[in-house]
Amino acid sequence: MAFRSVGINLLRLLLEGVSSLADALEALKIAGPDFAEVWPDHLGVILGGNLDAERAQSVRELLLKTDLAYTVHAPLEVNLMDLTATETVRSPRGSALIHPTS
What we know:
- By secondary structure, the chain is α/β, with parallel strands linked by helices.
- The protein is 26% helix and 15% strand.
- Strands 1-2-5 form a three-stranded parallel beta sheet, with no helix packed on it.
- The termini are far apart.
């Protein structure tokens, strides 16, 4: 099996400001992955279950400046394999992420 791309996880908490995110992204870029996995709750863009639009815009601008593709890690509390959790597993816009099949 041949790997066509390699990703790396941006696991650190980066809540103190976007400058620390810029430094972390530059370090990731030097490491040479094809994509990076980001955690919105580790970037301070989700606060109390709500999107902080101003912070999200700053983070978005930095992510776009770095020549990487991104994947987004769901919060650890979200278990997409649990079909009974439709009331607790919700998207940021309030609709359920999963629906049990009958």
